[in-house]
Amino acid sequence: MAKTKTQNSAELFPILQQAPVGMARLAAEAEHADDGHLIEFKAMHSRSILNRSNSKRQLWMGYSINPYRGCEFGCKYCYARYTHEFLQPSPVSQVAPGTYDAPQQPWALAFEREIYLKENAAWLLEQELRHIDPREAIALGTATDPYQPIERRMGITRSLLEVFAKNQGYELGIITKSTLIERDVDLLQEIAQHNRLVVHVTITTTDAALARMLEPRAPRPDLRFEAVRKLREAGVMTGILCSPLLPGITDHELSVDAVAKRAAEVGASFLGAGPLFLKSCSRPTYLNFVRENFPHLSADYDRRFATMDFAAAPYRRQLAQMVKRVCERHGLGKRTIESLPEQDADTSQAASRKAPAPVYTVDLQQQLFA
């Protein structure tokens, strides 16, 4: 007897739609919470706030926290647009390397237009911190900026910092482009007294006009430098990430040197920088931006990212040497906790740690936020 092909219910009854599952279900159930300019905010029920992060490429393990899903800043090079793929009711098609004329995917645009607010974030963090090794690094703001404008009204990030302020012995890193972090100086100081805290402020260029093109809704570079100054004056270990370095746009020594010079002037604890990488989710957005604003660079980008998302090894080594040279020129060498000035070590080394803490270099912090 011949076997008949088994059909699923969707094939037999196409009028019946399959209900979304996982993150797509949570997104579908999210309720309208607020509105902004061309943005809708939705409250999303969250089952967890700490995400285990393992990277075979960077050889580290740790945890990440993102109080929001989606980001208002709309940076053209943002690699995190892929996070909105998981909110789609059905799998999305990927843009293969070597494809340069693909339009921006609707879900990639929704990343900056449809922002989800994670409910009960502080309560979840309190529960989950009890079950992790406090010596493992926790990164706040790996995929979306924890201080994007909606934070001013919602205060989710501040509620998380209040939890850390009541604990001790943790390794916490924060990354942001926002000056709103100045609001939480009191909590950052309190956290640093009993934990190891490192704040990273991303500043890709000192050119305000270029920054406005690359990061349309982020604060101006000069305002970010001032935020670094204020955090350093408050005794918070704070450095600058001049990342990503954009080929033909910001990857030259003159540009990096200008950032490093200002970093030294405001007392930054360190400066780090790494090359651009283009995941399939960000490739159409960024490459279309290059075509519109830097058409003479299009052929170079086509060559660089024809077969891979990441920069070639010789180019990475060249940039690393340049960044090292610039940092040495301005006294911004990469530091570990032991080589920090005494006032930083006093405020960031946990006094009551039960076991020896691993020494995290700034390189590892950069990898955690890559």
Automatic annotation (TrEMBL):
<keyword id="KW-0411">Iron-sulfur</keyword>
<feature type="domain" description="Elp3/MiaA/NifB-like radical SAM core">
    <location>
        <begin position="61"/>
        <end position="292"/>
    </location>
</feature>
<dbReference type="InterPro" id="IPR058240">
    <property type="entry name" value="rSAM_sf"/>
</dbReference>
<dbReference type="InterPro" id="IPR006638">
    <property type="entry name" value="Elp3/MiaA/NifB-like_rSAM"/>
</dbReference>
<dbReference type="GO" id="GO:0046872">
    <property type="term" value="F:metal ion binding"/>
</dbReference>
<dbReference type="InterPro" id="IPR007197">
    <property type="entry name" value="rSAM"/>
</dbReference>
<dbReference type="Pfam" id="PF04055">
    <property type="entry name" value="Radical_SAM"/>
</dbReference>
<keyword id="KW-0479">Metal-binding</keyword>
<keyword id="KW-0408">Iron</keyword>
<keyword id="KW-0456">Lyase</keyword>
<dbReference type="InterPro" id="IPR040086">
    <property type="entry name" value="MJ0683-like"/>
</dbReference>
<dbReference type="GO" id="GO:0016829">
    <property type="term" value="F:lyase activity"/>
</dbReference>
<feature type="region of interest" description="Disordered">
    <location>
        <begin position="337"/>
        <end position="356"/>
    </location>
</feature>
<protein>
    <submittedName>
        <fullName>DNA repair photolyase</fullName>
    </submittedName>
</protein>
<dbReference type="GO" id="GO:0051536">
    <property type="term" value="F:iron-sulfur cluster binding"/>
</dbReference>
